[in-house]
Amino acid sequence: PASEVYVRTKSKAIQEASMRAFDHKLSADVTQTELMALIAKLNADQTVHGILVQLPLPSHLNSERVLQAIAPAKDVDGFNWVNLGAMVAGHTLLAPCTPLGVMTKLDYARVPIEGRSAVVIGRSAIVGKPLALMLIARGATVSVCSSKTPDLRQYSLMADILVVAVGNPGLVDG
Question: Of 10, 68, 74, 160, which one is the catalytic site residue?
Fold first, then answer.
């Protein structure tokens, strides 16, 4: 259900931006070969400018192989290693949307980033790590923690900027 809400929100944003989207709803039993063939077809199609694979995929599919099959220039989520590698070098090509949303929110709220201590709780390649790289690129000193970090409270207290990106409600409280 959460993914369906997310997809609807993305579809609405695409329409509001006067862009076209094509939704390829595949059955839950799609094979790796079938999915990889669709991505190859979309990569080759000059009328397709971006590809987004909604995660999570069914457990029988290799998500890493699927995401790496997307052409870096069409990788709307910024998950391809080429795009992630560019972030490590401080040259974001296509940024993952949730970390970009966090950075946009910080900018909107006029939160100073340069020279600040930032703590990101969550180390996923989808949110935590890319967000840490974006904060580093903007001059923050960044600590990346997880729900297993000893003394998580101490890290949280020393943060000028604290972002919690783990699926563990109540991990950090007031």
Answer: 10
